Structure formats: C-alpha cells, structure tokens
Known about the structure:
This protein has helices at 2-28, 49-52, 58-68, 81-90, 96-118, 123-132, 145-160, 164-175, 183-196, 205-213, 215-228, 233-236, 253-266, 272-295, 308-326, 338-346, 348-362.
Amino acid sequence: MKKSFGVAKVFLVLLLWIGLLHLVAKLSLYAPQSIDFPYYNTDLARYTRAEAIWAHFDGIHYLRLASYGYRDTGTQAFFPIYPALVSALKGIGLSPLYSALLISYCSLFFAIWGIRVLFPSRFWPTFLTLLLFPTSFFLVSVYTESLFLALVIWFFVFLKAKKWGVAALLSGIASGTRLVGILLALSLAVEFFRSYGPKAFKRPSLLLLLLLSCGGLIGYMWFLLVRFQDPFMFFHVQPMFGAGRSGSEIILLPQVIYRYLKMIFTVDSTTLLYQRVWLELMTTLVAIYLLLKFSSRINPPSEPNRESFFHAPLRLGPCSFLGCRLTPTPCPYPFWSSPYLSIFCFRLRPVCGIINRCKKGRE
C-alpha cells in the first residue's frame, strides 16, 4: 500500500510538472516572437502553434526523418534510433508529432523508474532536481533527451546487476541515439575488468560485448557508407547547421575560449547575442567546476566489491559532458548547447551525496 502511494505521488508530481510546462508554453505564444527555421511554415503548419512549439529547431528534423528517412542532405547529422521509433508508432495511426511526444513521455517515465531502482534512498532529491532544472522541458520535447537518459539509467541498472548482455544492448541502442552514447562501452569495459580482473582479457565474450555496445554507431556508419559512401557523414554535414561549424577541420579548446572572449569584448552588450555568450560560457564553466568537484570526492574502494559499480560510472559520467565540451570539435562555439546538456550533469550532485554518505557509514 505504501509503495503504491509512493508511485501515485510520483505520477501526480510528474503530471503537475507537465501541465505547468504546457501552461507556460501557451502563455509564451502571446509574447512577441520572430520564428525562422527550416520547415516551420511547411511541415509544422499542419499543427497549432501550441503543438508545434514542442518540435522547434532539431525537433522538425526528427519528424521529417520519421516521415521521409534520410532523403535530405544534412539530416545525416541526426542519429536514427529516435526517428525510427517515431516512424514505428506512426503505424498505429498517430501523427509524427504525437508519436514523438509519446516516446519522449514514456522514455521519461522509464528514466524516472530507473532512477528509483538505482537510488531508492535519494530518489526524491534526484527526481525533483531533474524536473526543476531550467532546461528540463527538453525532456518532453521532440528531442532525444528522455530516450537517451532512459537508456543510460537502465544501462547502469543492468550493469550493476552484472547482466552484461542486456547492458551492452542498451549501450548499443544509446550509441545509435546520440554519438556520446559510445562512452557507455567504456563504462562497461571498466566494470567488466573490475569484476574479472586480468582474466577479463581471456574471456571471448568481452569482444562481443564491446561490439554490441558500439553496435548502434557501427550500424549507422555502415548505413552511411552504403547509402552515401561516407561513414562520417554525420560529421561532414555539420556546417549546414550554422554556428560556424566545420565539417573538415577540428577546433581545439584554446581556439574556442579565445573566440568567446573575443565576443565578450567586441559584441554590443545591449544585444541578445552578448547575453547568450555569457550564458553559454558561465553554464559550461559552472557545470565543469561542479562535476570535477563532486566526482573528485568519489574514492574507489581498496578492494573490489559489489559497490565498485558506482565508482566507474560516476567518474565516467563527467567525461560525457567534459568530452562534449572540451574535446576537439567541428564547431567554434560548442558551448551553445551547454545550457540544456548540463541537465544531465546536474543530477550527479545527489548521486555523489549518496556515495559520500555510504563511505561515511562504512567508516
């Protein structure tokens, strides 16, 4: 009875949060706005403005992929798992938009369920920080955020249970959802070595698990090779999406910082661009600081045990964000996506709190 009441409370909070987001979205339609991005006046014209607002920018590309496949040059930048699921749901009579939203909503539910399984004693702080983060509305938009989060959470659930095959399968699906999903294969390898030690190299299943963990990315690259004769087309089409992206050269971190500092001193301080530059730069720096600060507090145990699962993922978790922000990139302004990508990092704080409390309890 108590467990059922707890689930009901989660559903109630989730429904209230979704309702509040829709209310804010409808109120925002009365604000002056100038909308200008591809296909807004064509593909999204069939929906009301209150509906279309959830599929702006990247969202419309996912909807077109679900309807037409990789017909348009440039859509190869978007990985296939999410639009494939949207296309599959279209078969039951739903429109592409409502199919995508249903996937995002269901994925968010499974992600929350996974958080409850992983961290039962600290579920509510983690759950509430997830919903209250300023950019959490992406979790119920036509974006891959909810699906990717659910895959990552359940990957670690099965990794903790030593169910290597299921974990590798989820990792493979994640790598076909977002490029950064390939880092889950590294998490699997680390935990596999921690469990079996040097004997891990003698297990033939390790190679199969790693191949399966990278299966989504490998499959997508094979598709691009066969269809377009370019397995890295998802990288080469980046210049089509602006922001100074390059599909042929790599931008290093010092160049990125220099360009942001240059904009701070040269851009008119009364413009929206100037405010956005500060938002992107400060969000990135704060997220990196918090990740490094809290992950540094997680010390692995002197002897491998069942709790060793937590340490590799939590040390690799910051690498996902830091890898996206700090490694060589085709975009000279890669911090532009930090305000919404940082929602994944913000959840590490309650997790680190759990580990620190467990450590103090053992002491």
